[in-house]
């Protein structure tokens, strides 16, 4: 991976930081995208250069904006050999379907599906047939059936099906990682609140996941020469097999 640039849209959070660290340790160049928290993204970039001597560019803005997507691609080209893309963006959309408005559903679709797919389209076009890899981030809720998850899970399930279509349609590899209950990202607050303690008490999972668990799965799919495409890997401690 040395010298290859990997776009991490939404890459300044806990999960993004773990992925960026893993990639930089392998000599790759993470391009850290963040929607608004520039201070956190800059802090992550400083940590990476201090630990690994890798200069990680930072791009601020919403990937629903075409100019921001172009800035990410341009930063990737300047930083190294444009090679990979992981959209770690999204919003939890916890509103129940019984009370969800049209706007609630549209916003969830925009954040959890449309943004990542548009960035993937632009990234694939920028590669122009060169070797590369895309890893979409879905959720265990798009694989298992969890009551109350419609607004969030439906766009994430659409992302899985889209990844399979693109893996068939495009020459680059397209795969999906579906995290479970992890101490990072959108589930972190729920874990702290005790919402998922019953999964441990009933022995459905051995522990809560860590950012490093998901980062390893993402890095696996990004490895050059990987022989895997069009696949979904649930990193959930086996929870969706027991639902």
Characterize the structure shown:
- This protein has 243 residues and is α/β, with parallel strands linked by helices.
- It has a single domain (4-241), classed as 3-Layer(aba) Sandwich (Rossmann fold).
- Helix content is 45%, strand content 16%.
- The protein contains eight helices and seven strands; from the N terminus they run E-H-E-H-E-H-E-H-E-H-E-H-H-H-E.
- The chain has helices spanning 14-25, 38-52, 66-79, 102-127, 150-169, 188-193, 197-201, 211-222, and strands at 4-9, 29-34, 58-60, 81-87, 133-137, 173-179, 232-235.
- Strands 3-2-1-4-5-6-7 form a seven-stranded parallel β-sheet, sandwiched between helices.
- Helix 1 (14-25) crosses helix 8, helix 3 (66-79) runs parallel beside helix 4 (102-127) and helix 4 runs parallel beside helix 5.
- The protein is globular.
Strand runs, count: 7
Please describe the biggest sheet, giving its number of strands, its sense, and whether it closes into a barrel. Answer: 7 strands, parallel
Count of domain modules = 1
Q: What fold name stands as the CATH topology?
A: Rossmann fold
Helix content: 40-55%
CATH class: Alpha Beta
**Tally of helical runs:** 8
The secondary structure category is alpha/beta
Q: How are the strands ordered across the major sheet?
A: 3-2-1-4-5-6-7
Strand content: 15-25%
In whole angstroms, the N-to-C terminal distance is 37 Å
Topology pattern, helix = H, strand = E: EHEHEHEHEHEHHHE
The parts where pLDDT drops under 50 for at least 5 residues are none
Q: Which outline best applies?
A: globular
The CATH homologous superfamily is called NAD(P)-binding Rossmann-like Domain
Shape-level CATH architecture: 3-Layer(aba) Sandwich
Summarize model confidence as the mean pLDDT: 94
Rg (CA only): 17 Å
């Amino acid at each position: 991976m040395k010298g290859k640039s990997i776009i991490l849209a939404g890459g300044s959070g806990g999960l993004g930081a773990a992925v960026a660290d893993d990639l930089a340790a392998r000599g790759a160049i993470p391009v850290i995208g963040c929607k608004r928290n520039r201070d956190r993204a800059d802090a992550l970039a400083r940590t990476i250069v201090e630990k690994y001597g890798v200069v990680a560019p930072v791009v601020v803005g919403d990937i629903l904006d075409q100019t921001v997507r172009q800035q990410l691609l341009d930063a990737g080209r300047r930083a190294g050999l444009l090679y990979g893309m992981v959209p770690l963006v999204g919003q939890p959309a916890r509103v129940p379907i019984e009370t969800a408005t049209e706007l609630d559903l549209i916003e969830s679709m925009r954040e959890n599906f449309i943004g990542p797919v548009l960035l993937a389209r632009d990234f694939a076009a920028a590669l122009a047939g060169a070797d590369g890899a895309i890893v979409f981030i879905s959720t265990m809720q798009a694989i298992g059936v969890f009551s109350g998850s419609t607004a969030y899970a439906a766009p994430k399930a659409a992302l899985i099906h889209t990844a399979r279509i693109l893996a068939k349609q495009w020459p680059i590899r397209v795969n999906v990682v579906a995290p479970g209950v992890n101490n990072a990202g959108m589930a972190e607050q729920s874990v702290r609140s005790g919402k998922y303690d019953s999964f441990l008490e009933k022995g459905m999972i051995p522990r809560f996941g860590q950012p490093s668990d998901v980062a390893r799965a993402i890095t696996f799919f990004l490895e050059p020469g990987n022989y895997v495409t069009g696949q979904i890997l649930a990193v959930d401690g086996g929870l969706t097999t027991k639902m």
